Amino acid sequence: MEIEFRNINKTFGTVRANIGIHFSIPAGTIQGILGENGAGKSTLMKILSGYILPDSGEIYLDGELAKIENPADAIRYGIGMLHQDPLDFPPMKALDNFMIGKPGSLFPARREAERAFLELRDQFGFTVDPNSYVDSMTVGERQQLEILRLLWLGVRVFILDEPTTGISAQQKEKLFLTLRRLADNGNTVVFVSHKLEDVEALCDRVVVLRRGELAGQMTPPYDTDRLIEMMFGKVIKLDERLPCSATDQLVLRLQNVAIDDYRLQIRNVNLEVRCGEVIGLAGMEGSGQELLLRACAGLVRTVGGRVIVNGKDLTGKDTHSFMRHGVTFMPASRLEEGLIPGLSINEHFILTGEQKGVFIKRDKAKSYSQNKISEYSIRGFPESRVEALSGGNQQRTLLALLKEELSLILLEHPTRGLDIESTIYIWSKLKERCAKGAAILFISPDLEEILQYSDRVIVFFSGRVSPPLDATLTNVDQLGQLIGGKGWEEIFEKEQVGVSNAAQ
Amino acid sequence: MQHNEKRWQNLGFQLGAVVLALLLTSLVILAAGAPPLDAYKQLLKGAFGTKMNVADTVVAWVPLLLATSGLLVTFAAGLWNIGVEGQIILGSIFTTGVLKLLQDSPLPPAFIIVLAVLGGMLGGGLWAVLAGVLKTFGGVNEIFGGLGLNFIATSMTIWLIFGPWKRPGVGSMSGTEPFPESLWLPTLPGLRLSIWAVMLGIIALVVIYFLLQGTYFGLKLKAVGNNPRAAFLLGIPTWQYMLLSFFLCGLFAGLAGSLQVVAVYHRLIPSISSGYGYLGLMVAMLINYQAFWVAPVAFFFVALNIGSIQLPIALKLDSSLSGVIQGSLVLAVLVVEGIRHRLLRK
Ligand SMILES: Nc1ncnc2c1ncn2[C@@H]1O[C@H](COP(=O)(O)OP(=O)(O)OP(=O)(O)O)[C@@H](O)[C@H]1O
Ligand SMILES: [Mg+2]
């Protein structure tokens, strides 16, 4: 289906999210949408999929004016969207979720739905189990489920809002194959992303939005520098490796830590984390890195071994005790676990800031928030509710909420949904904290990011935990192998050599 | 400019809701075979016709004010404290208990009243904590827990009135033996209205307003209510806050029940809570949990209740008409709110 945007405008209060957007997408192509955080990408996509109405402008589908007033209309036109932040993961079976929104019968035919589910699933080589529960699925699996659902609804235009943040390289590869196939079958795919290499690898054409306006379009061959310039209005150089600021003082010590989960077991983890150090945890989603990270925050109970923070044994303590000892944890799901929808940015800073007395000092709090907002260049106001911020700006808010005095910072996907410029900036901020003595453990599905910013890397493979590898001595290929379960004997041998060398 | 426009828009929608509610009720009145305008006139007369009517309306305003104020706390924490009705009842029971215990003691009456009121608040608070404990530790949804506890509270009243606390001779539906006048909260001459009770009601509302708007405690409650998981990760002890919000609501509900005894009935009667708890839930929903609107809307609601007492005599209409109006109002507001959401979604 060919899609044409004609002069789309949308404002939220004083924010002009889309200004006179005008371009078209031919049928059977994969269209990339680029733009910095808050550029208006999600807004435009939500307009196309009926979640919000534009102030003015029209959408033409195959040359005919479309009246899209709600998501159901969009589905009828064959337009479906995978959201940037799926809002709720109900404790519901995949199959039930699959059947939601299918018009027609009051008593849905489960049998038939299941057949369709399995057929579509096998057709695309997906792995989701119709009887697993949505809330226990990985982001990648939820994506697969959502794609299946849309296919079953007869959707021919697939909008994916930042689908590659939060999924592993393997899942990404599979997703790209799927999208290619969808496009080859004559469907239209709209792909929103911050990752230039993804867009360049996948998309047949690209448009760039900047501050609500269409900044430019490009078809292959892509000129990366030119794209970056269109996105940010200036040239940005990817950063050099930042220096390691590790000292000899220990922040965290894990001794023979064991963790049990219903799907995997982790045994005998020994780790010493020093002040100022950054350790990246790599692994396919659900390989155990999330569990270990949460165990370091007291959010997952260890079944053996000891967790020692700043010389204090906190084994078995709750997360609030960990917090009192300078540990903080930042979850990946920002609107479910990180931020509180309904509360403003200002109120978030009040909650996490210093609290003296009974009554809130609003004026003081507001000027503090104002400072933080400009420090982290959050596009929003102290009064803005967090759910009204763009994805990237929510992420910045989360990071801005980290307290000043911290000794151990645990981050799940710290730069999820951030544009290149902000990623670089946020990491410089985090490194500043390291220079002040904090240690960082972080999970990222992006191996490049892990190599770029960590001093040491730990790899996870279905509950197995590698010894820490020196980030300057390993590379994407090796990490990729390890994540896939290959080459493990080698590193253990090397480790032995390393240890005996050190002993000499 | 933008702001103003929005305010007018809101006002428009709210007026629309009221008109819709009036239409609905008028239909009901017509169906019952009475002229709507007359019915409304009678309602007004019943609520405000004489000095006595006005006083009665104010008397009824107090417990509704207290119950609604308390409910704002649990609503802030995201909790549906249906058990508020039972918490009012427990307030009455505890107060009656303390009064019975101390009425023959040499303590000064004023002191006994204070103790009785405090006892009532504690009773309501504990009953609420019970619902909270059932939720946080027993995994019982507070709506079901609350309903169960309400049922127990009502049965307990009946049992006390016909059992241990029955009047000399034989127990009766008219309640326990009335307390001596020295143990009544002083009222205005010739009226049932106690200035003390009204003041307590207003103070409670003001306290709640500032608690929710201006304190760290209130903000944390709101955080817990909107996203308990994130609130916990931000360092707020979630279940403790939930229990505390139950306790606070129970205190206010208990105070309402207590005042029903010391200021209005001077004894325990079977329907001592008079449904003010449920009515409070309706008011809270209607005003979208904004403390600012509690006083006027609660007043309007009790005015309907008191006004409708006249209806059976004047128009042969049942006095439950007030309930119809209140119910349609809440429904109309919710419907209009839904429509507004759809229209303004753009
Ligand atoms: N519901 C809303 N209410 C108010 N402002 C909004 C709302 N939704 C979006 N905005 C604002 O509109 C602008 C564009 O937001 P949008 O979500 O489209 O950005 P985006 O390009 O998707 O950014 P990101 O890459 O960070 O996800 C932002 O400044 C955002 O704060
Ligand atoms: Mg977005």
Protein described:
The complex is a heterodimer of chains A (504) and B (346). By secondary structure, chain A is of the alpha/beta class. Chain A has 2 domains: 3-232, P-loop containing nucleotide triphosphate hydrolases (Rossmann fold, 3-Layer(aba) Sandwich), CATH 3.40.50; 250-326 and 405-503, Rossmann fold (3-Layer(aba) Sandwich). Helix content of chain A is 35%, strand content 24%. Chain A is built from 18 helices and 21 strands. Chain A has helices at residues 41-48, 71-76, 94-99, 110-124, 139-152, 169-184, 196-202, 224-232, 289-295, 319-324, 334-338, 345-352, 362-375, 391-400, 420-435, 447-453, 476-483, 488-503, and strands at 3-12, 15-25, 30-35, 56-61, 64-66, 79-82, 157-161, 188-192, 205-210, 213-218, 250-260, 265-274, 278-283, 304-309, 312-313, 327-330, 408-412, 439-443, 456-461, 464-465, 469-470. In chain A, the strands form 4 sheets. In chain A, strands 13, 16, 17, 18, 19, 20 and 21 form a 7-stranded mixed β-sheet that branches. In chain A, strand 9 (205-210) and strand 10 form a beta hairpin. In chain A, helix 12 crosses helix 13. The radius of gyration of chain A is 24 Å and the shape is globular. With 346 residues, chain B is mainly alpha-helical. Chain B has a domain at 55-290. Chain B has 14 helices and no strands. Chain B has helices spanning 2-31, 36-48, 51-76, 84-102, 109-136, 142-162, 195-214, 216-226, 228-233, 238-265, 276-286, 294-307, 311-315, 321-344. Chain B is globular and about 65 Å long. The mean pLDDT of chain B is 90. The complex binds adenosine-5'-triphosphate (ATP) and magnesium ion. Magnesium ion binds next to helix 1 of chain A.
